[in-house]
Specification:
111 residues; mainly alpha; elongated; disordered N terminus; transmembrane; DUF3618 domain-containing protein; transmembrane helix; DUF3618; membrane
């Protein structure tokens, strides 16, 4: 058992200064800052938990990547020595169409 040298009860909470706890402007600013922080946090959580939005974003990203790749291969295929690339571009286009069809079917099924 520990004893306090001044024989006064030991309190763990420090007493706030009057300027910190009673200044209405500081309190209002603190409340506004906390509201803004909570709003940002709620928006981030909502965005992370929205499965449909995440799936749509991923599908759009994949479409964009596939279309960019197809356009690149299409430009290369226009050169006469790159016939194999033309075939590869057609395969990539078919793949992108298949991914879009599967994503559309999943979206339609989950509606």
């Amino acid at each position: 058992m520990s004893t306090n040298e001044s024989n006064e009860p030991v309190t763990s909470a420090s007493t706030p200064t009057e300027s910190d706890s009673t200044d209405p402007a500081k309190i209002e600013a603190d409340i506004a800052r906390h509201r803004e922080d909570l709003g940002i946090t709620v928006n981030e959580l909502t965005d992370r938990l929205d499965v449909k939005k995440r799936a749509k974003r991923q599908v759009n990203d994949l479409k964009g990547q596939g279309l960019n790749r197809v356009q690149d291969l299409k430009m290369r295929a226009q050169q006469p020595q790159n016939i194999e690339l033309a075939v590869l571009a057609a395969q990539m286009l078919a793949l992108v169409a298949g991914v879009a069809a599967v994503a559309g079917a999943i979206w339609w099924w989950r509606r």
